[in-house]
Task: inverse folding
């Protein structure tokens, strides 16, 4: 577990790469640190993307403006962990997910990354932000790791290679949750999203639905998600 040489600074925010080991797998990540940060958010990217995809970096910048550090890792079979270009077709996606360690491996990856960051910077109030595949990763982490105090999830349902685990773990998710969905989602139909939202056990959950396809989440929802995390952390 170590930092790499990818250390840059822009507008007072340091961006630093790292790599951790989880069950023999190398898991690359990136850590954004503003000055005087006393909180942390884990950022989960979507399918076919990676830890530094533009919308993840944008959320990291918005969090930094509120004094919140953030961290992202490449999901199973994505980014620097991809043996080939990640695809969104269900069969290909399931193969990539499972070859990258599957559900249990993914949980171990995030736990190792958070352990590393806490060892370096100390424990802080921590939340999680993840849409689409970011929810496939984020919901299980939030449901099983008591360090997660608030979750921003969405664009996912009882769908995909770990759908059974999502439905099993959803009732165990009891921290505040904001869930985003696109009413005309062409990848994860609204009924699947509603099924997952309904299964979430938190007494403090809200559903935000907007018209449009999977990737058409309005900018105001992204900004609102950052405000939500700021409020609850």
Result:
């Amino acid at each position: 577990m170590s930092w790499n040489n990818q250390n840059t600074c822009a507008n007072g925010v340091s961006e630093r790469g790292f790599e951790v080991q989880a069950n023999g797998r190398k898991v690359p990540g990136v850590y954004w640190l503003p000055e005087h940060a006393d909180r942390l958010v884990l950022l989960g990217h979507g399918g076919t993307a990676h830890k530094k995809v533009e919308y993840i970096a944008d959320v990291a910048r918005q969090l930094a403006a509120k004094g919140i550090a953030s961290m992202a890792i490449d999901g199973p079979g994505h980014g620097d962990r991809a043996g080939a270009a990640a695809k969104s077709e269900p069969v290909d996606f399931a193969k990539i997910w499972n070859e990258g360690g599957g559900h249990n491996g993914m949980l171990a990856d995030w736990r190792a990354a958070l352990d590393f960051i806490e060892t370096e910077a100390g424990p802080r109030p921590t939340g999680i932000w993840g849409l689409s595949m970011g929810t496939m990763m984020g919901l299980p982490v939030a449901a099983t790791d008591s360090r997660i105090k608030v979750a921003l999830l969405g664009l996912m349902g009882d769908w995909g290679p770990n759908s059974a685990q999502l439905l099993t773990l959803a009732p165990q998710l009891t921290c505040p949750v904001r869930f985003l969905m696109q009413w005309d989602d062409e990848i994860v139909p609204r009924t699947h999203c509603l099924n997952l939202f309904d299964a979430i056990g938190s007494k403090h959950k809200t559903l935000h639905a907007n018209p449009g396809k999977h990737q058409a989440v309005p900018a105001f929802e992204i900004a609102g998600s950052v405000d939500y995390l700021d409020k609850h952390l």
